[in-house]
Amino acid sequence: VPDGTALRAGDPPDAPEVPRRTLLLGAPGSGVSQEAERRLATFPEVLRVLPGTAAGSPPPVVLPPADDGSVPVPAAVLPPAPGARTPTTGGPPRTGPHALSPPAPAPTAESHPWGWTTTGTNELLPLLAEDGPPLLVDSLTRWLAATHTTSPRAPSRPGARPGPGFGLPAGYSARLAEAVRRSPRPLVLVSDQPPPAAPLPGDRDGRFAAELERLNTAVARECEEVLLIVAGLPVRLRG
After folding, report:
1. Could you tell me the pLDDT band of residue 66, with boundaries at 50, 70 and 90?
2. Domain 21-56+172-239 - what CATH class?
3. d(CA 170, CA 10)
4. pLDDT of residue 209
5. Rounded Cα–Cα distance for residues 147 and 100 (Å)
6. Which residues lie below 8 Å from residue 47, measured CB to CB, with a gap of 6+?
7. pTM of the full predicted structure?
8. How is the chain split into domains, by residue range?
9. Burial 191-205 (b: 16+ CB within 10 A, else e)
10. Is 122 exposed, middle or buried (0-12, 13-18, 19+ CB in 10 A)?
């Protein structure tokens, strides 16, 4: 700062110029969440949203029904087999929709910069419509897994369509993308990138991956910046 410059104590630093809407895609463990935090680290206030989580609890894992109509037990709630490696030690990949986004540790006050707020909610549309500090959503994968119905025979929300798939209300992904486009606040959105070798449509995991691809595509259209995170390095796809 040049000599003679007048400074006011307590004034927060000016927020940097960043794209209004950014979508970060990446596989679990790629560093996509850390990249999202870095992009907003200089803002004095940020609201971080963790869909699919309750206070202090891991996100629920929702699986579609088996062919016989029974609801499978998520692997995430089963005790590990003797000698089995945990997800943190690089064990074999999980199965089911949660394979795209393994549970993260419960957020704490120390897990984000000072001045940030972390909340666990699936109600993204009202938050996107509100004015306020930048919004970091980690992740759209968790939101999708937490908001679809567990059984196409018993939709859990008004407007949910029965039949194959996840019972999302018609146009639900488009509604979220529209809310992203209209949001008055800066956005950084995290989502998993389904692997190229995902099962074919009709397989349970394949249906989830297809729905996630549709959601990612709809949201990416509304974002000025889209990046793919590989081994902690951002690869620019747009912007």
Report:
1. very low
2. alpha beta
3. 49
4. 82
5. 16
6. 116, 117, 119, 127, 132, 133, 134, 135, 136
7. 0.67
8. 21-56+172-239
9. bbbbeeebeeeeebb
10. middle
| pLDDT tens string 114-134 | 889 999 999 999 999 999 999
Cβ–Cβ under 8 Å, residues 215 and 124: no
Q: What angle do CA 13, 16, 19 make, to 5 degrees?
A: 155
The pLDDT, as a whole number, for residue 84 is 39
Per-residue pLDDT tens digits for 9-39 = 776 666 556 789 999 999 888 999 999 999 9
H-helix segments, the chain? 32-40, 124-129, 140-147, 172-182, 204-221
Q: Are 137 and 51 in contact (CB under 8 A)?
A: yes
And the tokens for 139? 């992740």
Query: How far apart are the C-alpha atoms of 34 and 46, rounded to whole Å?
Result: 14
CA angle at 102 for the pair 118 and 232, rounded to the nearest 5°: 80
Q: Which residue has the higher pLDDT, 6 or 83?
A: 6
The helix/strand/coil state of 117 is strand
pLDDT digits (tens, 9 = 90+) for 45-55: 999 999 987 54
What amino acid occupies position 109?
A: A
- Tell me what pLDDT residue 5 has: 83
Contact 120, 51 (CB under 8 A): yes
